[in-house]
Amino acid sequence: MTSTLSVTSRRQRHETQQQIEEQTKKGLATKRFKRQQKEAAEIANKKKADRESRQNFFLVRSKQTKVGAQDPANCCIGIGCNLSQDAMPVDTNISIGDESNVTISVSDDNLYHLVKHPPVVDISPSDIYPTLDYIEDEDNGRNESDDDPGEVYGVQQKFIKAIQKRIQREVSGACQEEEKWLSNQLVENDWWTRKAQIRRTVKKLKLELLYLAYYREVYVWLPDVRWASIPNTFMPCCPNCKSNHEVGPHSFRDNHFGRVVVGLSKTYYIVSRRYICHTCQRTAKKAKNCAEDLMKKSGATVDTVVVPQYTFMGWDKRILPLFESDRGDYYFPAVLTWKAGVDKEVVNMMRPLFNDGMRPEALSKLLLELHSKQFTRLCIQHEHEIAERKKIHCNREFSPLGDFGDKWKYRGLVPTGKFLAHIYKVFHSSIGEYLDMEVKKCGADFLHWDVSYKEAKHLSRYHGKAVFKGLVTAMNELGEVRIQFHVYSDSHDQMKSALEAFRGTTTSLGLPDVCIFFTDNPAGDKQFYTRMLPSLQRQQGLLDDLCQSNTANPMNVDVDTSLPTYPYENLLVRESCKSDDIDDLVRALKENIKGKNIGLDAEWNRTVNARGMQIGNSKVHIIQVAYRNSSDQIVVLLLKVGGLTRLPQRLEHLIANQDVDIFGANVSADLTKIARDFHVVEMKKVDQKTRQNVHNLGLFARKRDVVQDGSASLELIVKSVLNIALYKTLQCSDWGGTLSPEQKQYAAIDAAASLEVGEKLLELPDLTCRLQQEEVSPGKLVDLVPRNGSTACMATRSATATITSSGTCTCPPGMVYGKKKFKQMRAGEGSCVIALGKIYSPALIVPSYMWAETKTPVTLEEFPDQAEILVPISMIKEHVAMDTIRPTPIETHDRAGRSRLALTDNSVKKRQSSPVSQQFDETQCGTGDDCEDDVDDEYSSCFDEDGEERLDGMASELTAEDIERLQKAVFDAETTRTGKPILACKQLSHPPDPECVENKFSSVLGDIFHAMDRARVPIRHEAKKGYFVALRDAFFVWNPNKLKELERRMKERGYSDDKIKQQQYFNPKLFRGCIDRHAPPPAILYWRVRAVFATYGTIIDSKTKAPLFNDRAWKKADNLLKEILEGYYSDPPGITLYNKRLNSDGTVMKNEYSMEMIECARGTNRTEAYHKNIINTFGTWSTGVEMSDCLLREKRHRHNQNVSENRRSGFPRIGHYDTWLIEKLMKLVMRNHGWRMYPGLCNTSEYKFTDESFDTIALHTKGLNDAIKNRYVELDKAKIKLTRDQRYLCLVMGTLLPFLPFSGEKEYHAYAHFITSNNPKDDDDAAILWCKFVDGVDIFPKLPSHMRIHREQ
């Protein structure tokens, strides 16, 4: 049965209440009108008496006449009164004292006029404060279609009512066409009644015109009337059946005429009407009749049968997104609640302001300031108008505007912080799914996992207890947030459902599997995470095989000494510096070139200041052009153009020519600088990155999946394509003088290598190119891809397929095609029929296919095997059979995961130790080191979220003695590893034989900085700084090749060897910013770290006489050494942990020594820094759970977009964060123009939403959920009164009652009874048994973590 039964008659009660309210309003209006008439009569009588008492009243006094306040003719003297000599004696003096005394003295023949002193009355305008509040109790069960029953009927309401009645009369056909003046006015003003039309509108409506400041602009929302030229297209859809086929106008409201909306500095009104869905009406009536028949048969007596609502307002938020062409979103100007609304401009301001830490109360104050200031300006303008009118109508009385909050007149309205927070949550509910999907489409080769306990402090508490205690965040290798959810504790059982859902999303979208996992406690976490993410186990197997084969590079450093160098001797190099000679060389190029490809590079000098900092660039000095001549030999032209003001004509034509393909590393930036330096007008007009014939080798190689980073250097690309080593040691030499042979060789090789790489890459398929119509042929094997996006952001392909020969296909059962619901289709222009093969991205939505009943889109996994489907040609490309394609196959037993419930009850209950971790002392491992309670004032943390920043400060304060001790510690480690006596330390376990230490690597790695901080040391110990710097240098080893290169460049700037060594300690950021470091394998790392512990641990502080390490620190240090032997802190071979830093134009950033700047993706520092930034957003703000989720969702989306723009090569910079608007624009441009905007950006809407969720997610098992359902059936629902946040918890966690921590005497007593009457086998069982005590009022369900923590407390 589709309907439910209700005990009371809601509809009858509502109609009775409306009648009572209407009668009350009429009675109050009658009393108010009589009172106003009486007051007006009294004022008129008083004015008449006062005027008669002043008429022709003159004073006759002696020479010193005084007029006092007690005189009935209290007056002053003015020019223009004709007094005779008898009435005013000669030489009468006039002096004006205070307000109560006026002295008059007149001379002969002067004329005076008596003028009244207006009485001054003290008035106190009412205080101005926000009055539009959100009251949760009033909001329960309401939506934006409901009305405010306590609305006062003032000037604005009369105006809105008259407009509504008039528009109702005009749209109903009761008026002749020429009488539809209001409709015509609305059409001319985009369906607004603007301020300029109010005077005319009031007159037309035959209303009394009061002050214009009392009236507001009105927006009329009648989409079916506004766009009536397209029949039935813009009739609102029913929010229940999502169709407008049988929807029609219902009525205008007779008790509510418009909804007030708050803007930045003023308010306005929106008027609409109700609509009715006849389909749902019939369904509701049928359900009602069935329910009544059933009641008659069963003998039950129920007052009313509640049926689904089939009428709705035109502004219902559920139907606005359903309008064709997105007109509901774009033309409707506000976000509404049942009480009022807020303009979308204010909502757009909320998002960045709240994200930056502004609280809703602060925004409310800002709006109050703007609204009240506007009101004050209107008052000033009004008083000026009164002054001007009094000059004409001197006897007419005028009144001020009144109070800001006067509901009868001005009716100023400003929302409170609570109301703005509610609007923010309402708006986020409309974009939440999209923002979550934006996170899901981010792939993750690495996961950096961390738990923050600070954000939870800002969540609202339940009876003083925290609802959640931690926020788990996992980032990918680029620093984008990929997983985020709240937990009550950091036990593994609360993380299972999130990881299952993540794995399911990865499978559904065809994303790469996680191969490396960073955590703060690798020994305790490895078994759990490798079980939850099978890809980690596979990666572990590969690492184990690599160690057994002894092929791993022990130092894990890129070594190119085995590669051959570029054969410079095979090049034909031509050099010229004169304009005519350059023209001759370019002419020879055009005559002898084979093909249309050239390699291009440019060299110039970097300008530095006295400190060695780069402050600018010189003019381009050298342009290198490489081409292949008719004899298949590469010719390189070294063109010295530094002395020229303009380029030679032929050279300018060559580089500006659109018919020649130009290859080079970031060659578009070189061309831009050449055009700017030599004023090449034609080239300056065009963005060089958009030229079709200009190929930046980084992106060119990325599109062919040769490199994984579009900003890859020329060295890496040459190594990957040509298997040749390229050295860039002379890049920063002086190019303005005479070139040395080495410089000529360097310059020529750069251009020649660029040409050869370009030629090789042209032979490889471009994975981003789609098939053209002429390339479609039956039987051709193709790859199915999304309509937008490339390998840079999503899987390389979504499925394989074969083009069929028939060109026709039939929809599978239950499916239809297009809006007209075709069942059989024939491929026309721009489309083809394919037979699906292997599917890699099951969640990809196939355009135009939908399920006939639900009208939901169809995904690849929902088609039968080998199904023939019709797709746009823009979705298929050449099939690429190569190993570098990284598919994620479907596993039949592993479907999309869910964040709702964990799959099993007892598979993971507590942290379980692996065979490796059993040898460790768990109390001395990383477990709990992040807990807020594990902080000692004397032994505090050194590395928190700042990571290495604080250590840099310590390094800069080292003395020469500290550095000497530091270097000695590393020296001892090296001598031990090479066979010298073993480092002895009685506080540490006996070390293994150096010859027997095996190199091990792990797919689950620990954060090195947390490991360094494992052994806490005293804050004020004099050896602390040297110890931490030595420990850092023990864990990390510089790349020797890049270190030598930087040292060489520093020597060229005048640095000595000793100065350079000092800079490594005093300016480590310089080295760390351009030189990669690696954590050596266990056979090396163990001895380096042990040497530091042995050297520094026993040092006695001269003041406190205490050693650096106490007993606990020694135990921690000893346990860390054991973890090092297991490979938890060594970089796995073949894994790249560094990214290049990019400028805003996509080029690689360089430091003052022209070395490419890099950033490290090792460990959890980025995740911890993100958590710290979250605290900056929350500040002292205490939010509810729902508001917290909205803020986290917004921050996560903005953070990820910023990271993508900075670290994903080719990612567009759109200037705002509403990426769903960009998606809509991309689709419209493709449909209207056939252009693919932002080809590297994949549309979120092309994939089906998965069940993965974020922020507040389900942390319980299915068994616990069933126990709650069974208990809920037994409870009295009328007694259960949940708050909004509690209802939100139930919604997002998928339960009928919220999980809340223990609080209150009733729960404590119930727990005592529970303990005595039950014997649970574990915490999961205890949580299930506890449900028998739940009442939904004072006693609520508990998670296993609640039970465990309460038991331990």
Automatic annotation (TrEMBL):
Recorded superkingdom: Eukaryota
Coiled-coil regions listed in the entry: none
Signal peptide start-end: none
Assigned keywords, A-Z: Hydrolase, Nuclease
Entry-linked SUPFAM superfamilies: Ribonuclease H-like
The keyword Hydrolase is annotated on this UniProt entry: yes
Region (Disordered): 1-48, 905-931
Domain (3'-5' exonuclease) ranges: 581-762
PANTHER family: 3-5 EXONUCLEASE, EXONUCLEASE 3'-5' DOMAIN-CONTAINING PROTEIN 2
The protein, known as: 3'-5' exonuclease domain-containing protein
Annotated source species: Discostella pseudostelligera
Organism phylogeny: Eukaryota, Sar, Stramenopiles, Ochrophyta, Bacillariophyta
